[in-house]
Amino acid sequence: MTSKNKRVILITGASSGIGKACYDYLLSKGHTVYGTSRQVSESDPKMLKMDVVEPSTINVAVQHIIDREGRLEVVINNAGISVLGAAEETTAEDARRQLETNFWGAVHVINAALPCMRNQKMGYIINMSSLAGLFALPFQAFYAASKHALEGYTESLRMEVRPFGIHVSLIEPGDFKTEITNHREYSGPAALGMGDYNSRYKKVKSVVMQGERKGADVTRIAKLAHRIINQANPGLRYPIGKSMDLLAAKIKNIMPQPLFEWLIRDHYKIN
């Protein structure tokens, strides 16, 4: 890799899953890569402690990279959580934590990095969204809300920072095999096997977990991120996943809403 193509990269949520795959792959390609996690090991000085819901930890980590490297060219916002539960029953605390992590966390990281990127007149920002940012899923209302918010924010940001040579893109994964299956949070009576939503909730949960356990290899996402940061003018949206997942994203806007909704309900066995 030439020095011209070598990037200084920050990846949030890099201790596992998609973030870890991106960290390892981009490092193998010769880039200078820093990852973040709420818990870090002293054995890897390039893994920095950061909690995206605590802006002070974000500022410290970003400034550490800039002080050490003199620049910051790529930010990959990957840190996130998933809360499963009925919209009505999800607690306000759980819903807010979902939005604070997946949406506001990305906003805080970007705001910390933008002054450096504007000064150096270049940068790449990749926000890790989801196909759930394009169409909502039952019993994942606040996860979908966080990703829909990230999509709209990214569209606006992309236009605003373009004059500074900063490129902003979204990666929209479908089902991939990650630790999110084991780390998912549950909220409300249905998660405890109670209430009016319980029977349909259990069906959706089963389909969700089965899809993730049979999901694609996350290295595909890491390779896509690498392609994006090596493009002169990357696009806005990059959906990635199984063919049926990608088909659903394409047909939503051309299929009558009642039919599309029926297909989603049928997939989750709640028709």
Can you walk through the features of this model?
The protein is an alpha/beta fold and 271 residues long. 47% of the residues lie in helices and 14% in strands. A seven-stranded parallel β-sheet has the order 3-2-1-4-6-7-9, with helices on both faces. α3 (92-120) packs parallel to α4.
**Terminal-residue CA separation:** 53 Å
In N-to-C order, the SSE pattern is: EHEEHEEHEHEHEHHEHH
Question: How are the strands ordered across the major sheet?
Answer: 3-2-1-4-6-7-9
**Low-confidence runs:** none
Strand content: 5-15%
Structural class assignment: alpha/beta
On the 0-100 scale, what is the average pLDDT? 94
Task: Name the helicity range.
Answer: 40-55%
Number of helices: 9
Set out the fold topology.
Layout: E1 8-11, H1 17-28, E2 32-37, E3 47-49, H2 55-69, E4 74-77, E5 83-84, H3 92-120, E6 123-128, H4 141-161, E7 166-173, H5 180-183, E8 185-186, H6 198-213, H7 219-229, E9 237-240, H8 243-251, H9 257-267
Parallel strand pairs: 1-2, 1-4, 2-3, 4-6, 5-8, 6-7, 7-9
Helix pairs in contact: 1-7, 2-3, 3-4
